[in-house]
Design brief:
By secondary structure, this protein is α+β, with helices and mostly antiparallel strands. It has 20 helices and 7 strands. The strands form 2 sheets. Strands 5-3-2-1-7 form a 5-stranded mixed beta sheet, with helices on both faces. Strand 2, helix 9 and strand 3 form a beta-alpha-beta unit. Helix 2 packs antiparallel against helix 3, helix 2 packs parallel to helix 5 and helix 2 packs across helix 19. The longest helix has about 45 residues. The protein is globular, with a radius of gyration of 24 Å. The two termini are about 25 Å apart.
């Protein structure tokens, strides 16, 4: 399920309140960005029915408003949005023309208008992904060039995973998950050059302080071919280690190596959903990862969920959903996909925090933790861990 589309369907199916096309399009996004429903309703009230004069379709106008939430307001990308609508509707974009053609074809008005709302929401999400992908590409190109320069012929592969390959990367909040493979462990001097390069690129990313920047590990070809659990690595970097790198680069380069159970999950995600940026294709690089190793890895990440949920509720809630989803269906989900799986499959009493976490994730905002909802959040975590244990044992 797509939580935004489902919400739009609720709005269009409402009998208590009539939501025009602009309102039904913008309201799901407004909820994701924490904008009160009454406020969004008032903003879009005059845009239904083509500004109530048969002008530009209200769903299209609502879509343009939604794009503004994501900071997309330039003529180039708005032009793409308009053209995609027009390509789907014989070159028309105005309400009067769309309704005329629909009537000439013998179709009813409401199903047509409903479909326009759902189409606009889908195209907004598609365009947001495209714009973010464009933004990501220059970062990845800079990184590839820097990795070649610092690691030279020892570098054998660069693989992208995580939200950046699952369609939900947010440049204002998401990290960039990478795995590098090398023929043999780099020297400490090469590691230091690599880390300097990495920080230099990260600090050139607009607003990098708001998110976690790069998270990556370097492993040897041997570790990829012949999987071990926990998996050995020769260098790791993430936002949590930034201060250590800055304070004592020499010591960090010398000491940051060992084994990491998380790599079982990273290898599995790469094999299922990853993208090769350099080197041989994924199927030829990575050996089999036992299901139990992947499961142990993701279970370890959620072991402290009852306490962690109060510090990072969005991550914990969606992560618990994708863990349970994997156990039940053996599918590798993104955080958003895991949450949407939860909305379809969890008991009704557990869906409220999942819905809020999904909206926060889409809108890039924090999940408010209050005295009133602390108990509810911890109850959710306990129940999800119980479901996980029961399903695993079954």
């Amino acid at each position: 399920m797509n939580i935004l589309l489902e919400r739009a369907k609720e709005l269009r199916g409402s009998t208590a309140v009539r939501y025009n096309c602009a309102q039904a399009t913008i309201l799901p996004f407004a909820e994701a960005f924490g904008i009160p429903q009454d406020t969004a309703m008032k903003f879009a009230a005059g845009f239904g029915g083509g500004m109530k004069r048969g002008g530009v379709c209200g769903a299209v106008t609502g879509g343009v408003m939604a794009l503004g939430f994501f900071g997309i307001d330039d003529p180039k990308n708005l032009g793409k949005f308009y053209r995609k609508i027009m390509e789907n509707h014989d070159g028309f974009i105005e309400c009067r023309d769309l309704l005329r053609i629909n009537a000439e074809r013998g179709f009813e008005k409401k199903p047509h208008c409903d479909a326009m709302v759902y189409e606009a929401i889908g195209l907004v999400e598609e365009l947001v992904r495209e714009v973010r992908e464009e933004r990501l590409q220059w970062i990845l190109q800079e990184f590839r060039d820097g990795a070649f320069w610092t690691l030279g012929e020892n570098l054998s592969g660069i693989y992208l995973h995580g939200s950046a390959v699952m369609g939900c990367w947010n440049p204002d909040r998401s990290d960039i998950d990478l795995l590098l493979t090398v023929r043999e462990e780099p020297s400490d001097e090469e590691k230091k050059a690599f880390l300097r390069m990495l920080l230099a690129i990260q600090e050139r990313i607009p607003g990098w302080e708001k998110h976690d920047g790069f998270e990556l590990s370097i492993v040897t070809d041997e570790a990829c071919r012949n999987f071990e659990y926990p998996t050995p690595f020769v260098l790791h970097f993430s936002a949590g280690h930034l201060q250590r790198v800055r304070e004592d680069l020499d010591r960090y380069a010398a000491e940051m190596k060992g084994t990491d159970p998380d790599l079982a999950a990273h290898f599995s995600v790469i094999k299922a959903r990853g993208r090769c940026l350099y080197g041989v294709k994924i199927a030829d690089r990575f050996g089999e990862v036992p299901d139990q190793a992947y499961l142990d890895s993701i279970l370890l990440d959620s072991a402290e969920a009852v306490t962690d949920i109060l510090e990072n509720p969005v991550y914990v809630i969606l992560n618990l959903c994708r863990v349970l989803g994997y156990i039940r269906e053996k599918k590798v989900f993104s955080k958003r996909e895991g949450g949407e799986w939860g909305m379809e499959n969890l008991p009704e009493e557990l869906k409220k925090p999942v819905r809020e976490a999904l909206l926060c994730y889409i809108g890039g905002r924090d999940f408010p933790v209050t005295e009133e909802n602390r108990g509810e959040l911890q109850y959710f975590a306990k129940e999800m861990l119980t479901l996980t244990q029961e399903t695993e044992s079954f």
